[in-house]
Amino acid sequence: MPTSYSDTYFPVLVQIVIAVIVAAALVAISFLLGKHVKNRVKDSPYESGIAPTGSARERFSVKFYLVAIVFILFDIEAVFLYPWAVVYRELKLFGFGEMLVFVILILVGFFYVWKKGALDWSHEAPGDSPYGDPDAAPQSSVTKNAA
Amino acid sequence: MTALIFLIFACIAVFCGISLVVQTHPIASALSLIGVMGSLAILYLQLGGEFIAMAQIIVYAGAIMVLFVFVIMLLNAGAETPTFQASTFVKYLGIVLLVAFLGLISFIIQAALPKTEGVVFGGFQGTAADVGRKLFTSYLLPFEVTSVLILIALVGAIVLARKEI
Amino acid sequence: MVKLITKEGLIPSHVNKLFYLMAPFVAVALGLISIAVIPFGPEITIGPVTTWMQLTDLRIGILFVIAVSSVGVYGVALGGWASNNKYSLLGGLRSSAQMISYELPLALAVAAPLLLANTLSFRDMVNYQSGYWLGFIPRWNLIPEIIAFIVFMIAGFAETNRVPFDLPEAENELVAGFHTEYSSMNFAAFFMAEYSNMVTVTAVATLLFLGGWQPPFPAPYSDVVPILVFALAGLIAVYHGLHPARRMDKFTLPATGLVFLGIAAIFGLSLFVPVLKTILMALFWFCGKILILLFVFIWVRATLPRFRYDQLMRFAWIFLFPLAMLNLLATSLIVALTTK
Question: What is the DSSP pairing of strand C137-138 with strand C49-53?
């Protein structure tokens, strides 16, 4: 049983080293053992058998970028929750009040983001998809209840 | 043992830092930055700041750097082309001058600041419970202000991106 | 697996070689690291030595797992980007956006049992869940935190890119997603990473919500269960071996049956050796719970169709995230009111 602080982390370090070696070995083995035959067609990007058109280095929707920003902000909020949860039984109702203020402010931001449509990935309104979209109706009603 | 681990990860941090600046490819630079974050987290761990170390990885390496990588991928930033070619002599002179400058700075800092106790590895109380106790009693106001800050950042992000949605 | 090693490891010339090779490496390495902090059983004493059935128990073990999984995005994002293929890039981006979106409900769902147990160490978390209400209902976090458990499992499915959240590799839209351009062992590496992540997710779910290695019934009854299970499995296998449907079964099934009967016998013997009993019982219940959850993973894969991408993101942000948040607040209010 580990006694000192650094002792508890030593196995983690060992595990990291093992994981790195295993992963490197996996990548290296196929590199060394596999045969290497190249030709131009095999080499080209896979596009369902049709000759590749255009480059993959194109710009993509700003949505991805927006999701990442919103994620960072909520992630910071989530990280604050852990020390709070761990000392919660010492804080009791006082702690609940503190976190309530914090969470309400964050949720205001969440609703703003939601209403501005930053979380909507389809440009059409939910429900008018050409395939009928059976999930949309019950899902949105549940959402309203939960919110 | 602890000193050895410290040296190893401090070297990794510095090496990644240099690679961050030197690399011409933006993705390589971003990955170097992740390396810096990771080794810094291990240095925090050695100090005893367990919670801070994990928060460093979760928030910096796991969230902020994802945004960086996304932006690089989305904007399709290619390898940068060097804007001017310095001669070999100037390059080496630069390295020498940089080392001299760093030496000078560290000397001045050592001379100017009062002598302190050495850092004790693992001596710092930084478990999640310790952080929580401090954060939710002594530093309550900064904590609540953080939520306002996050709110402002959310609104800011949406306003800036609004044209694109 | 072995077959894939010797396959041609094609590195297409249009890729960024370094990052192309780095992506499966990162994925596998991160998948293996988390195991270090997963405990398998209680404290055991053999003679003078007291040890834990675990590599190490960190005071912040739960955060450690979350931190490792939060870095896991890079394997996918890098793989998709480095391949320099439209499908790969779009698959990689979708996959990483999905992973970060579901990481939030996951993090919030984990926080709820923390509120009850007030610890970040897996071992303390399991010890908190020992004992029984009214003598027979296990004190697992599953019962007060059923919502958090469901959110955790759904987000876990999404984090590991399993069906119905495997949009990034939707074959009919994106060929094979971020690993379209991968072959040989590099391709297998991504799958190994996916499966090791599945094991990690189920292990964490077991530890946080299902009481880890604690049996679901009080001690004298729960000790008999493994013997019965293995003996029954052994007998069934032997029976089918005696009435073989295919020729091969004549040898394989009785052999398997005998192995199972042997295991049952070992469990039976262990009742008289306290140390062995502690180890075997803990392993049996812990692995059993993990296997049941893994079975759910496979089962869901065979059952559910795939989400559409916009539904997927809406579901994470507009349903799971507020649900986990409200559950957390409700839990905290109840805990605050019941704590003296």
Answer: unpaired
On the question of pLDDT at A130 being above 50, the answer is: no
Closest residue of C to B74, CA-based?
A: C93
Q: Before C226, cis peptide (omega within 30)?
A: no
Mean pLDDT of B105-114: 84
- Torsion sign across C-alpha atoms A6, A7, A8, A12: positive
Q: What CATH architecture is B1-77?
A: Up-down Bundle (1.20)
Q: Which residue has the tokens 């050495």?
A: B118
Percent composition of chain A: helix, strand, coil (DSSP 3-state, to 5): 65, 0, 35
Asked if the structure places residue A21 within a domain, the reply is: yes
Other beta carbons within 10 Å of A98: 18
CB contact under 8 A, B128 and A101: no
Q: Which domain holds residue C127?
A: 2-215+306-338
Closest-CA residue of chain C to B37: C71
Q: Name the residue among B7, B70, B93 with its Cα closest to residue B42.
A: B7
Domains contained in chain C, number: 1
Helices C61-71/C73-82 angle, 10° precision? 10
3-state secondary structure A30-52: HHHHCCCCCCHHHHCCCCCCCCC
C53-80 confidence digits (pLDDT tens): 666 777 788 888 888 888 888 887 887 7
